[in-house]
Amino acid sequence: MIGVKPNWPRLNSFCLIARIKSAQKNQFGFLSAIIKEKYIMIYKMIANIFLTLFISLSLNQAINGQDLLSVPNNKLISRIESTNGFIALWKFDEQAGQERVAIGTGVFPLKEGNGKIKRINEGPVSGYSIKLDGSNYLSLPNSMTGRLNIYGDQKEVTVIAWVKWTGDRGGFIGGMWNEYEEGGKRQYGLFISLPHYNGADQVCGHISKTGKPTPPFPYSMDYSASKQKVPKNKWCLVAFTYDGQYIKSYLNGKFKSRKPELINDTKGFEGYPQGLIQCKNPYYFPDGMGNNGADFTVGAVLLKNGMGNFFKGLIGGLAVFDKTLTEKEIKKLAK
Q1: pTM for this prediction
Q2: Sign of the C-alpha dihedral computed for residues 205, 92, 237 and 167 taken in this order
Q3: Residue 126: which domain range?
Q4: What is the spatial distance between Cα 167 and Cα 56, in angstroms, rounded to a whole number?
Q5: Residue 328 and residue 282: Cα distance in Å, rounded?
Q6: How many domains does the structure of the chain reveal?
Q7: Phi and psi, residue 230, nearest 5°
Q8: Which CATH number characterizes residue 211's domain?
Q9: Which of 64, 90, 107 delimits the end of a domain?
Q10: What residues contact 228, with CB distance under 8 A and at least 6 apart?
């Protein structure tokens, strides 16, 4: 306005105050951002430390076979229990040092032999398995076998196991088989790899009527052997069936027949100067199973010098049936 002198100092002071407040606001905002970023960095560092500790602990437990969260395959367990002829399933989810008990028609408590047997936190049935090191085993006295003691001329049996075999050597999985006492108390048994008589690296199902060797040979040769070889260090289902006439071996639910072949280690015996020719899968054996008095064992059988034919690897489950399961039924349990 004309004739009025502007109040410049007052206006300048207001501008100065506004600038100072703006600078303070910016400074506090900058400091706040720095503090926030530092808190985030600290949080991430703590989280990484805990994650590293957890992974390290988990790996250490896994290496030592200690407990981790294992989830049972309840659908598979239900299918096993509902299968015709089901007698028993050992899930092997107990701690080392404990009896391994079954579900089914009885508990059939298996006791450890030659030391404690580790429980490993992996397996296709319960999420756990037993680790057999080639010197230990499980057993149940004959007097406690109950319905596991399957015998008779037309009696049937199926034995199934979920295994992870090291491939180091052949071994016994499970059944009632004793090769020494009273000349032998063989009855039925599931093996992996029997090199004598053409069963190397294969699923073998043994049946015996007398409990003794197969004459005129020094050992029992009455077993089926799968055409397929058992993979090493890989989970698979191994099984055999017996219907009173034929023994059949299965790998992962599949049956593959074998053509008649010359059987190893049979040449030169009485009646077989050129050796014996047989079909190993299926194997014809119409004699039935004897009630021969063997214990039920897992992982080994009794030989002349003590327990032998040790299995080396993991067993995640073992099931016994008093019926001949079909290939379709076994395939369902391999899934």
Answers
A1: 0.81
A2: negative
A3: 74-333
A4: 30
A5: 17
A6: 2
A7: -75, 125
A8: 2.60.120.200
A9: 64
A10: 202, 203, 251, 254, 256
